[in-house]
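Form 12-C: Joint structure prediction
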Amino acid sequence: NAGVTQTPKFQVLKTGQSMTLQCAQDMNHNSMYWYRQDPGMGLRLIYYSASEGTTDKGEVPNGYNVSRLNKREFSLRLESAAPSQTSVYFCASSVSSGRLSSSYEQYFGPGTRLTVT
Amino acid sequence: AQSVTQLGSHVSVSEGALVLLRCNYSSSVPPYLFWYVQYPNQGLQLLLKYTSAATLVKGINGFEAEFKKSETSFHLTKPSAHMSDAAEYFCAVSGAGTASKLTFGTGTRLQVTL
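Section 2 - Result
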């Protein structure tokens, strides 16, 4: 049981390049999330997927797109990378079903450290 | 709308001393509250969570937190700090909805000295 896995671990891009961050979970969770972490700002939600087949914007969606490929996988795409997107990106998942969906904790991957020059 | 404020971006304690990390929340609905810990170059790990079953919540590694509605607080404590507690700690809140979207505080880095 690997939990939440993310690839790659590190990536350096030039401004304007594109890339996709991959995330997979093997816990049969319904909901998946993408966050970015910047110094002094905590984690901020980029996009989330409450269930397979749905995606919604979070707090900072501009410059990103997502795909919920199936129940296990949720990818984050940067179409034209900018230096402001230099950050550590975390994927997370949670059970989140039913009336008490908001009470379920999230399980986090190890992160992808992205630098855009 | 919901938000979290963590007072003190850095806290330093001596080994064996009390750890107190402060968290205040704002939420328009009864909140669910979480504390996560992040060790260097790792993801976040759940320490404990409040889901209205009990106001005093015990977590892993000897940590606990008390939900105080009147003070809108959810402070994290540990009676005796250990060197291995050095990490960054995040308080988070989620509200009603079909997914447990979390709003995080800005984090508190705990330093433990000999």
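Section 3 - Comments
Chain A touches chain B through 30 residues (CB under 8 Å). The longest strand of chain A covers residues 87-94.
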